[in-house]
Amino acid sequence: MTPDLTPKLPGQEPDSAAPPRRESRGPAAEPTHALARGPVVPPTRSSEGFLREFLRELQYGQGVTLARSSPNDQYLAMARAVRHYLMADWLETARRRREHPAKMVGYLSAEYLLGRQLDNALLATDMVDIVQEALAECGISLDTMRAQEVEPGLGNGGLGRLAACFIDSLATLDVSCVGYGIRYEYGIFRQTFVDGRQVEVPDTWLSFGNPWEFPHPEREVEVNFGGHTEQYTDEDGRERTRWIPGWNVLGVPYHYMVPGYQNGVVNTLRLWSARATHAFDLQIFNSGDYAEAVRAQTFAENITKVLYPEDSTPQGRELRLQQQYFFVACSLKDYIDQTLPPDFDLKRLPDQIIFQLNDTHPVIAVPELMRLLIDDKGMEWDEAWEITQKCFAYTCHTLLPEALEVWPVELVGRLLPRHLEIIYGINERFLEQVREAFPGDELRVRRMSIVQDHPFRAVRMAHLATVAGAKVNGVAELHSQLLRDKLLPDFAQMYPDKFTNVTNGVTPRRFVRQANPALSELISEAVGPGWERDLSRLSGLESFAEDPEFREQFRQAKQANKERLRALLLVRDGVELPEGHLLDVMVKRLHEYKRQSLKLLHVVTLYESIRSGEVAAEDVTPRTVIFGAKAAPGYHMAKETIALINAVAKTINADPAVKGRLAVAFPANYNVTLAETLIPAADLSEQISLAGMEASGTGNMKFALNGALTVGTDDGANVEIRQLVGDDNFFLFGMSEPEVAALHASGYVPSQVYADNPRLKRVIDLIASGAFTDGDPGRVSAFVDDLLYNDRFMALADYQSYIDVQERIDAAYADTEAWTRSAILNVARAGFFSSDRSMHDYLDRIWGAGIRL
């Protein structure tokens, strides 16, 4: 993918035809006017004040009158008017932080799944009523404005949603933080179904403008790639290394405001967009070669074109590594060269900032910081390494070895030759320490090496992060234990004090207060206002679980949420949900370890039992199963699973034999916006991954906080949810992690499980017959064969336990009062899963308590 370009290298004279680069750093002139020096004055907080801001933006921002404006004009003007109120707090927060500096968190994440910004901004500024009243004066509905906003899909799932929750909490806790990431031109694809199969459509989230971002081209950063290194002697006679890059791009920052909850604090999310250093060649254009004239621009912009380019090709893998290096190089250089004072002593860098590595995607930042300190700032290796080890901490989000990124040495060397040299240097010194600690154990040395030799020579990014990080944390108690015992046991033995746990959490502002107004009102009446910033106060609901009147109000809130979901899906997807059903929901990324296949087997089991006459339809608890999931574009088995779910849904929903008793819905393009309506409506939360496979999960927390009961394995944060809400209020099934390991060791044969279980055999045979695929068994053969002869995640082994617990669920749901009591207790006991608590844990266990303001 390396282009044939002739970029300007360090030390070369600038092209006389190129426009001058604007200087972005250095102190501004001292303002003389008192208003310029003092606190920023926000617009008037009243409906009249907001109306003035709105009409001004409509006329002078959009260039239209109210009478001639479109809904998009109105939305953009309204959003920018709301933004004015946030901007005043944003500028004031920055001023206060400059005057009273504190150690900062630099949150490095390749994903930020933010959700829509309008409602979050209105909630944070407590301006919902003001805006609603002002718009009503113009005959505009706030709901209409909400519908205009396009969700920025800058994440794939839980990782990006977690990052968004964390930066929300850091602002709410008034912790100095900048989130760093990538401004993808096209986010996670928009999912559509064609004949039941997933088809990916580009996510054009920027098409109609984005009023929530601020571009700052004057703070652009140059990022180099390729080329080679050379040795030279500096002016002090020291042997040094110089990187001579082959090509470069510019990173332009776009700022997003991250408001705290009604506290006047607004932090910053800084997303980087790539553009060419020389975007347009006029001479080539005038010669008639128009495509060549803009080739550099096209190539550079590809870096931030799309979230997670398909990496099944060498070109896709190279582009992914380019993305990762691009955003961390921009972020580190921006902080060191454009945020710190010009005369700052970099030996004090660990006192100023901690960079949190959100999974392995940003780990290339480790050799980049070393390069900056050694090559650009002239430090010696040992001094630079001591600083680097104090500036990073690493969060691992997986237990799947294949999810720990490994980059071929050939690719790293070609794209980032200086960084590969630094990685070799880190590894060489590290392995010396391993040999000293464990003399004669060369197998351990091989296992722990940052650079692997087999099956191909590559850099293990998780090993690099663990060696360089001041702390390494898992994201649930079980996950952190397995991280120490199974995923990185050699490192845990060598660095026992380096490993810790921080159980994930979710923001109660978006996922309870904003998503579930009916329940939020009920909570506030019961425990008083302010619980949104102290979720432990939900424990005050416990006594209300015994109150029949409160239980009835709770059911009414749940029913209101179901009606809201029913109305949304009818308009959004043309899906008509039956009334009066248990709402059984499984929404998450489509992956075999999450076992959507097991849920599908349960659905077919219910269907087959009614169709065969084994169970009378009137004896079945009415149930609607809702799936929501996207499969990675290159993940064949996940796509086959989606196709089969849709085929089963089509058959079941058209069969009069099960009408009114069983229905299946799979709305396309599950995202944060849909989640905010779907999760509050759910009765049952499906968290059925194979024990030992899910790091944490955060959907499980959102469901519990919104009054859904969980059916799940003892996996990830399910363990902690069950411990907190109580066994009586959680439907546990399946093998434990030690039992899974024992079955693996003894030799798991899924076809034997199939042969020994007549009910399971009937269900799989029904699928295999083509009963759901218009009589064509070939369309399901890959799915069936994988279950019978592979079943890596043991869906068949847990099948009978899962069917048994679902029968218990049917019986439990029939007891309305007992079910409601359990749902209330889930809400009351789930306050631990606030992302505010997670941030306190990071502050105390990883970043240092002194970081607090």
TrEMBL record:
<dbReference type="GO" id="GO:0005737">
    <property type="term" value="C:cytoplasm"/>
</dbReference>
<dbReference type="GO" id="GO:0005980">
    <property type="term" value="P:glycogen catabolic process"/>
</dbReference>
<keyword id="KW-0328">Glycosyltransferase</keyword>
<comment type="function">
    <text>Phosphorylase is an important allosteric enzyme in carbohydrate metabolism. Enzymes from different sources differ in their regulatory mechanisms and in their natural substrates. However, all known phosphorylases share catalytic and structural properties.</text>
</comment>
<feature type="region of interest" description="Disordered">
    <location>
        <begin position="1"/>
        <end position="44"/>
    </location>
</feature>
<dbReference type="GO" id="GO:0008184">
    <property type="term" value="F:glycogen phosphorylase activity"/>
</dbReference>
<protein>
    <recommendedName>
        <fullName>Alpha-1,4 glucan phosphorylase</fullName>
        <ecNumber>2.4.1.1</ecNumber>
    </recommendedName>
</protein>
<keyword id="KW-0663">Pyridoxal phosphate</keyword>
<comment type="similarity">
    <text>Belongs to the glycogen phosphorylase family.</text>
</comment>
<comment type="function">
    <text>Allosteric enzyme that catalyzes the rate-limiting step in glycogen catabolism, the phosphorolytic cleavage of glycogen to produce glucose-1-phosphate, and plays a central role in maintaining cellular and organismal glucose homeostasis.</text>
</comment>
<dbReference type="InterPro" id="IPR011833">
    <property type="entry name" value="Glycg_phsphrylas"/>
</dbReference>
<dbReference type="GO" id="GO:0030170">
    <property type="term" value="F:pyridoxal phosphate binding"/>
</dbReference>
<dbReference type="InterPro" id="IPR035090">
    <property type="entry name" value="Pyridoxal_P_attach_site"/>
</dbReference>
<dbReference type="InterPro" id="IPR000811">
    <property type="entry name" value="Glyco_trans_35"/>
</dbReference>
<dbReference type="Pfam" id="PF00343">
    <property type="entry name" value="Phosphorylase"/>
</dbReference>
<keyword id="KW-0808">Transferase</keyword>
<feature type="modified residue" description="N6-(pyridoxal phosphate)lysine">
    <location>
        <position position="702"/>
    </location>
</feature>
<keyword id="KW-0119">Carbohydrate metabolism</keyword>
